[in-house]
Structure formats: structure tokens, C-alpha cells
Specification:
By secondary structure, the chain is of the alpha+beta class. It is built from 3 helices and 4 strands, in the order ββααββα. Strand 1 and strand 2 form a beta hairpin. It starts with a strand and ends in a 9-residue tail after the last helix.
Length: about 90
């Protein structure tokens, strides 16, 4: 799966890593629903850090279509809330 972090570029994520990312995504979504800014900020950073850790960075000149777009680390809770789908930020 090709993932774009807004403002950073694209990484390729293996299917085996999606379960760990979905767990973090669920925690992020719960923090948003609770209106807990501190937990939200920590979970957003944890999710993006995990994507960077497990992802293989694609070259800037790569023209791969992104299957998933994640918000930047400085996104507000409201901005992320607007990006959430029925399955959070990461489907599955």
C-alpha cells in the first residue's frame, strides 16, 4: 500500500504492518471522539512515526498513486476528524 503523509512524501507499507497501524488508528479515533487533545496529539505522532518506521520511502520523483493519505503531524483534531472515514484513517 502506498501511503502519503501530507507535506512529507510517500512510503510503501507492507500488508503485514497494517494490523499495528490499525491499532494506533483506533486509539487516535478514540481520542478524537473523547475530545482528548493530549492523547490525540500523542496517538497522531505515534501513528505517523510507525508509518515512517515500517514504510519504505519512495523517491520524490516517483509518481505512484497514493492509496491512503495521512494528515501532517501538526494537524488539528478537527482537521483529522474531517479526514476520518468509516474505518478511521487506515481501512482494514
Amino acid at each position: 500500500m502506498i501511503v502519503r503523509i501530507m507535506g512529507e512524501g510517500q512510503v510503501e507499507i507492507a500488508a503485514d504492518d497494517l494490523a499495528a497501524l490499525n491499532k494506533l488508528d483506533g486509539e487516535l479515533e478514540a481520542a478524537i471522539q473523547a475530545g482528548d487533545e493530549e492523547t490525540f496529539r500523542g496517538r497522531l505522532h505515534a501513528l505517523l512515526d510507525k508509518v515512517r518506521e515500517v514504510g519504505r520511502e519512495l523517491p520524490d520523483e516517483s509518481l505512484e498513486p497514493s492509496e491512503l493519505i495521512l494528515p501532517p503531524a501538526d494537524a488539528s483534531m478537527e482537521e483529522v476528524r474531517e479526514m476520518l472515514g468509516d474505518e478511521g484513517l487506515i481501512p482494514g
